[in-house]
Specification:
Length: 222
Amino acid sequence: MKGNNASNMKPPADIRFLITAGPTREFLDPIRYISNRSSGKIGYAIAEVARALSSQVVLVSGPTALTPPKGVEFVAVTTAEEMAKAVWGRFEAVDICIMAAAVCDFRPTKTATKKIKKDAFSGVLELEPTPDILAELGRSKKLQVLVGFAAETDDLEKNARQKLLHKGLDFIVANDASTFEAETSRPSFLGGEGKIERLPELPKSEVAKAIIERAVRLVRRP
């Protein structure tokens, strides 16, 4: 993951960041939903590091128990559809987009308007894909640096590499799925031309710094 010459880089204070964090929720009825184990910790840590560099930081977050860093523009969302609209509407104006959110891949085809009673449930839940936010960003990006995440239970680097290529990312952060609720992680950074950088186990705050440092190196002036 080679950076650009310093003469071609924006000063960090001028860099505009868009960061996503947390899970999404996809509702079966007004009470029940599908979600995942994402705590949002890494996304919030990334936003905090970015805010230390720049005053232009937007954090789009699904539901978490965390307090947003001071000084960021905070956008709260719940569903994948809401996150897609929030991100797509802001992407053109930023320099770096870091998609740390764990967006649900599927949602119920129908959401009941009232609580589904146990004795009325057929036992079959029909699902459909949610918007592929990352793929759409990859197709539409111009000079933006686009960073994605891969959380896997097996074949971590192989699956992350496929996502890197298929989504049009500048680099991807690969983590074992067991790190969702942990305070530390041992990520691998995969970039173009088969490049890979494996980090030791670190607090998520340190991982966030490493991600921001590498993303900033890739920023180009218009």
